[in-house]
Amino acid sequence: xxxxxxxxxxxxxxxxxxxxxxxxxxxxxxxxxxxxxxxxxxxxxxxxxxxxxxxxxxxxxxxxxxxxxxxxxxxxxxxxxxxxxxxxxxxxxxxxxxxxxxxxxxxxxxxxxxxxxxxxxxxxxxxxxxxxxxxxxxxxxxxxxxxxxxxxxxxxxxxxxxxxxxxxxxxxxxxxxxxxxxxxxxxxxxxxxxxxxxxxxxxxxxxxxxxxxxxxx
Amino acid sequence: xxxxxxxxxxxxxxxxxxxxxxxxxxxxxxxxxxxxxxxxxxxxxxxxxxxxxxxxxxxxxxxxxxxxxxxxxxxxxxxxxxxxxxxxxxxxxxxxxxxxxxxxxxxxxxxxxxxxxxxxxxxxxxxxxxxxxxxxxxxxxxxxxxxxxxxxxxxxxxxxxxxxxxxxxxxxxxxxxxxxxxxxxxxxxxxxx
Lengths: 217, 193
Prior knowledge:
The structure holds 2 protein chains of 2 kinds.
Chain A (H helix, E strand, L loop, with lengths): L1 H18 L12 H6 L4 H24 L9 H23 L1 H7 L1 H4 L5 H11 L4 H31 L1 E2 L2 E2 L14 H34 L1
Antiparallel strand pairs in A: 1-2
Chain B lengths: L5 H11 L10 H6 L4 H32 L5 H23 L1 H7 L2 H6 L2 H12 L4 H29 L11 H16 L7
């Protein structure tokens, strides 16, 4: 009776851990290049997140399917070829859907292929786990990655150009904080988010300690 | 064919559009290996070396792809070539200099996943650089990477002695310094134009 329930809880956990507890960007600092490079607007961040999630999902899906056939010695080259195939597909799809987006993301679409997040998940999770769990893990990680990109994209676009997804927020008297859409802004905003999260974690820790002390006394 | 002179290509890759601080390529090793000058310097040399060799190889591969008219194989071909180049470089170094191999050893596999190499190859292709231009671009990109890495390592070594608030320690502090360095490099923006 309790077995199916715990199984559901476990798969839920496989999915959720990518969102927060093992967030690829904020916790592991994986795949930093696109995180910093394309987050100057919300649309770019979203497109990059979705593209990466798609490649991550499809590649880990295939890797998990063939994990028993591929000899251990050649697994890394095999993974690379699988990932590169899907990246090429994504590149052509984006070029077909929106040339503007393709120009904005530039070489970073092709560079999804060297995103260590995808290789890391293929090697550390998909090559060892069943298809179902791999799919959940890939989705969780992909959504977590997209969430992190959006965290940066929203702050950078609002502060740097005073718009949200291209919609003007503050009117003409707003003086844009131009550094935010330029390269240094990416480093500073990500550092800011990390400090906010660290402050939050420390506060939780302090409260927990205080509650425990109160319980003892 | 791109008309840019070689000197400008070098400066552009190394300083004006520094690969790490302005183009965000190779951030992972930049954050990971910049804690100590002692490891940052050999890593920098390893990257310069692999970059230059990879520039030659990817140029040759691109000529072949253009000749065969299969541009959609570019990503797969480049990543395969870069991975093999790193392997080859590792073997050659091991054969000729044991000391150098020991100094660079652990960094070489890391370089395969360094997106700076892949980025350099893709940018050189997109800008239609000729052979010499591609080689100089690769060299400049490597030098730019090393410059950023060594600057960062020097700063981080100094900062180890200072009293930083606990929430800003670690990655956040490194990123803050990177942001300030990046601002400094923006000052080179008008150079050479």
